[in-house]
Amino acid sequence: MGNDGGSIPTRRELVKEAARDRTTTELKESQQEQQGYNWTTCPLSHRPLAQPIVSDSLGKLYNKDSVLQFLLPAEDGASKADGEEFLGGRIRSLKDAVEVRFEVDTDESTAGKNGGGRRAERWVCPVTRKALGPNVKSVYLVPCGHAFSESAVKEVSEESCVQCNEPFTADNIIPILPLAQAELERLGIRAKKLKESGLTHSLKKVSGSGKKRKKNGDTAIGIPDAAEVSAQVDQSEGVAKSRTPQTAGGATKPTSIIKDAATASLTAKVLEHEKERNKKRKLGMNDNLKALFSTGEVDKGTRSGDFMTRGYSIPSNARR
Q1: DSSP 8-state class, residue 58
Q2: What is the Cα 296 distance to its own chain's centre?
Q3: What is the DSSP letter of 252?
Q4: pLDDT for 238
Q5: What share of the chain is helix, strand, coil (3-state, %, to 5)?
């Protein structure tokens, strides 16, 4: 700092640019980048979006297996807390989510063109054939879940879905990943009205109290409990039934039945994944750490002991 030929830099020399607000163009570019990520990646599992895909009351998209894994009881409280913080209590059961049915363009696929976490399917509007994504305002209908471009729904102006003829109302046209504050407020008011009416986002009735469920022998949510049953799919009948656990007296206790074979198959996969992960956690230390410790009683100071009980012995030729 002194007598060494150095100098003390001033703030003007250190700060290249003064702090400023971002321009409208920069804000739009940031929003576009975030929308592109939300259209290709599940926020719960941070994996690429792949059908089946579900949406909550605010139009956000998730992988269905990620939602099932979140609903199942887990030993890892940290991951559960992260998911709860993001969802904000919007999904308590599968009734709070609607499966979004995108039409896949079979003529043109983006496989091989997009890298990283990009999805390989190209979703299009069945009416206008526009590609659904961050550049096109898209909506889906409740309760059927078919996805369209917003312009197609306005032009058709019918009271039933053009794909399945399921009736719907204007209030049940849900924008996908909305950005406008007015749309978010409308969706929030809709969710509040449905809750007051005893309905969920999918227009199904809210599950009854815990006492009634326990009396009837059903589980608390609309999927099998991980501690009691594991879902099995009957391919011949297309119906998935959970195992019937035995009570203390040996009588069978009725359990919940999943009528959707696809949901039951996905639930079985999630349960199997959870079982394997719990097994790995129960193992505790890995083989390298276990090699440092003995499993039985070993005399200290002997060569047969392990690293922790063997101690240190002086070679005989080094003793005086």
Answers
A1: T
A2: 45
A3: B
A4: 43
A5: 30, 15, 55
